[in-house]
Amino acid sequence: MNNDRVRKLLEQDLMSIDLDLRKSGDQLTIVLIGGASIVLAYNSSIKTTEDIDVLESRPVRILERHGISMYPDHYLNLLEDYHERIIDVPFIGMTNLTVKSLGTIDVVISKIGAGRSKDIADCKQMAQEGILIEAIFRPYFNRWLERFEDKKPLENLYNIIFHE
Fold first, then answer.
1. What CA–CA distance (Å, rounded) separates 98 from 28?
2. Which residues pair with 97 in a beta bridge?
3. Quick one: 94 exposed, middle or buried, by C-beta within 10 A (0-12, 13-18, 19+)?
4. Residue 31 DSSP SS3
5. In terms of Cα–Cα distance, which of 123, 121, 104, 113 is closest to 42?
6. Regarding beta strands 28-33 and 97-101, do their DSSP bridges make them parallel or antiparallel, or are they unpaired?
7. Is 58 helix (H, G, I), strand (E, B) or coil?
8. 32-86 pLDDT tens trace
9. What pTM was computed for the model?
10. Contact 133/112 with Cβ under 8 angstroms?
């Protein structure tokens, strides 16, 4: 699936949630994580996502009804100050749904933590597109690495992203 099609499908899903929120009179803020974040917030050309994952949010039912997966922040093993790097993802025409995204640093840390080949490929693509800058990312990665006893597998993934 090409990137424009992925972007359009993700945007349609979010617009549908906004419409349901308007009908119910509710307001909601979500924080995108993963592939949807990379496509919508950072305009990357990755093509490996068709779903929307968010940090745990309320009201849950409306998100579940739309097939949105929710994850608590501790599940993603994020740095404790990730809130400071959350960014707005503006959408024209949405009134009841506010969309935000993890910062680049935190999206990549969560993907390295997951360690799946498609996640590492996404990170590599972000680096090749100039969305992920090694000199900026490295200090955060080093701080995150301190949590782990066996750092070698994570260092190997880092090297795949930036040096292969």
1. 6
2. 28
3. middle
4. strand
5. 104
6. parallel
7. coil
8. 998 889 888 888 777 667 788 999 877 678 888 999 989 988 888 899 999 999 9
9. 0.90
10. no
